């Protein structure tokens, strides 16, 4: 179960989608006739990010499969009470194809549709909502280009353009940041000179709506991009807030402050 809490203790709420995983292993081949898998674990990679934000807001976390199974209207209810939405390592198609519509035992001979949840998010941003879109193997174009964010209905609200192919850029030597807009409220006053190497990121290009705040020093690709859509704001961080790309990032002295400042900016606490 990915939902972290039901009781609200703070005045503001954040909905965090993604960064949960089922881990199955190890697999043993003991006979030519079969294999055996021993042990299984459910792990939340986003625990460190959640802890950083819970200093200032209540956070509800949902795994990709929980998002996929949300009944029509439930995501809208979450958004209505949230100052910010985080999408991290979630394929765009997880927002579509509500699975209960395909239950043959419940199938009725009638046409069925339900609202496009990505369009609902887009309208929510336009009306003043704050989105943080974070990187990973299932973000932006993603591994083998299958994440689908460059082809979905939310695309033209984003401050970055996705590649049409796989966008993963990785190195075991790591990548470091170069701050281009040091006075921007999301990145101001942080110890960027102590930022530890990250092992990868999603390659994108900033579009006319985007302002590159931080780029990857070794390649020049955008790392943090800020933008606006209607009355709302969007911040994209092209790497992972959690392992594996962010296993060192989680140790950064400025980690908590970066996410708190980013939240403050997307929800318009600062100008």
Automatic annotation (TrEMBL):
<dbReference type="Pfam" id="PF07090">
    <property type="entry name" value="GATase1_like"/>
</dbReference>
<protein>
    <recommendedName>
        <fullName>Putative glutamine amidotransferase domain-containing protein</fullName>
    </recommendedName>
</protein>
<dbReference type="InterPro" id="IPR029062">
    <property type="entry name" value="Class_I_gatase-like"/>
</dbReference>
<dbReference type="InterPro" id="IPR010768">
    <property type="entry name" value="GATase1-like"/>
</dbReference>
<feature type="domain" description="Putative glutamine amidotransferase">
    <location>
        <begin position="47"/>
        <end position="267"/>
    </location>
</feature>
